[in-house]
């Protein structure tokens, strides 16, 4: 199956041959030849409403494979498949990749597409490393082929609210009430349920006023933002994809609503270049709690150099970074298995115990359901046109700015 990504070019990246690698960029010692050659299938929403993060993930996959080739001498072939932002296409993409000889898959960003793809993996007994997808169902439905690096929505949101509670004690005039504006798809509904549960568990001293859902295909969110504004809440807690995050902020500007805090968890927006390109000065101030790369990781500088060389007009964002890490998880398993066979890779993935190469988190290790046990989140804030890490302090790049500067004053 040929897959069209972004500008319409067919993406089939073969790294075993070494073509397209920039000479002199890095100087790692490369292992002797004779490494196992593996064919990896990567499933992403590279077109449609989720194209921005989907294409970022494609860049992360390709960079991760290139990194593995240069540093370890690994023989990796990557075949990309596009779900076109349709959840039902996850299974179709997975089946096609498996027919093409892919013995391990990575994907699929969207929870619905991930669950769909896992059905095909389960039937064919081909393991799948889930780089991003947070719905609880991904690892709660008894799939035996799933290995999810990304945390569940409850894990992300619980930790995010713990961090928020600690943050509130440092603020002068913290918010008193919050309104949740969320997608009504699988991810959004799972996140809303997780917020309601974790808010009580953490005992956050902020009153939750209302949950306001909206359709993921909505072209206008003026009514929903007006409802949120009418609650009188001084904190907005959005659960968004990047397109609707942009729409919500534009509506806040238009309607003259400037919450003291805009705090998001398990969402797109603040982490995405498209958010800043679209909003300019109105992007700054919003916060997001998310998995993020460690800018102080041992190989971070070289990885960022590689990315900049290949994609000078893009950012290595959280989407790309998670996809990059997924490739490292696969290559670690293949190396330990000494085989490209699905069964051998599956057995090695079950025994994974590795330190992240790029991401900021604990040791990567999967439980019996296939869930990574040691995920971690960082708190980012949009500052001067980019996301900046403000917590934890060990990897922080900037200090938190609070309250959000009113939109009318910018």
UniProtKB/TrEMBL annotation:
Single Gene Ontology BP annotation: amino acid transport
Keywords for the protein's UniProt record, in alphabetical order: Amino-acid transport, Signal, Transport
Span of domain Leucine-binding protein: 37-385
Domain of life: Bacteria
InterPro entries found in the cross-reference section: BCAA_transport, Leu-bd, Peripla_BP_I
Similarity remark: Belongs to the leucine-binding protein family.
Name assigned to this protein: Branched-chain amino acid ABC transporter substrate-binding protein
Source organism of this protein record: Bradyrhizobium nanningense
């Amino acid at each position: 199956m040929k897959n069209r990504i972004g500008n319409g070019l067919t993406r089939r990246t073969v790294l075993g041959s070494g073509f397209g690698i920039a000479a002199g960029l890095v100087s790692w010692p490369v292992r002797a030849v004779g490494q196992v050659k593996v064919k990896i299938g990567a499933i992403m929403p590279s077109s449609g409403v989720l194209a921005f993060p989907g294409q970022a993930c494609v860049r992360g996959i390709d960079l991760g494979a290139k990194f593995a080739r240069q540093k370890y001498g690994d023989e990796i072939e990557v075949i990309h498949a596009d779900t076109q932002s349709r959840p039902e296409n996850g299974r179709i993409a997975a089946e096609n990749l498996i027919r093409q000889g892919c013995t391990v898959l990575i994907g699929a960003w969207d929870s619905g597409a991930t669950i769909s793809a896992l059905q095909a993996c389960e039937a064919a007994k081909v393991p799948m490393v889930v780089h991003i997808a947070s719905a609880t169902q991904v690892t709660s439905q008894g799939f035996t082929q799933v290995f999810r690096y990304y945390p569940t929505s409850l894990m992300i949101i619980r930790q995010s609210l713990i961090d928020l509670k600690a943050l509130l004690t440092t603020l002068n005039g913290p918010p008193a009430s919050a309104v949740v504006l969320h997608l009504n798809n699988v991810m959004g509904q799972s996140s809303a349920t997780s917020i309601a549960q974790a808010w009580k568990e953490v005992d956050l001293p902020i009153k939750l006023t209302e949950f306001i859902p909206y359709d993921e295909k909505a072209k206008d969110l003026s009514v929903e933002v007006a409802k949120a504004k009418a609650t009188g809440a001084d904190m907005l807690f959005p659960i968004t994809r990047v397109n609707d995050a942009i729409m919500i902020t534009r509506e806040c500007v238009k309607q003259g609503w400037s919450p003291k805090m805009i705090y998001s968890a398990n969402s797109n927006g603040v982490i995405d270049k498209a958010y800043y390109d679209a909003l300019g000065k109105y992007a700054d101030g919003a916060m997001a709690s998310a998995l993020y790369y460690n800018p102080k990781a041992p190989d971070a500088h070289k990885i960022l150099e590689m990315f900049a060389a290949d994609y000078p007009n893009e950012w290595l964002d959280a989407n790309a970074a998670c996809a990059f890490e997924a490739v490292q998880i696969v290559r670690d398993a293949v190396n330990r298995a000494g085989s490209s066979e699905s069964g051998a890779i599956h057995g090695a993935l079950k025994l994974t115990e590795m330190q992240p190469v790029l991401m900021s988190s604990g040791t990567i290790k999967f439980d019996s359901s296939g869930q990574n046990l040691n995920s971690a989140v960082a708190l980012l804030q949009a500052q001067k046109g980019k996301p900046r890490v403000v917590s934890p302090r060990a990897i922080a790049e900037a200090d938190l700015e609070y309250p959000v500067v009113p939109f009318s004053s910018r």
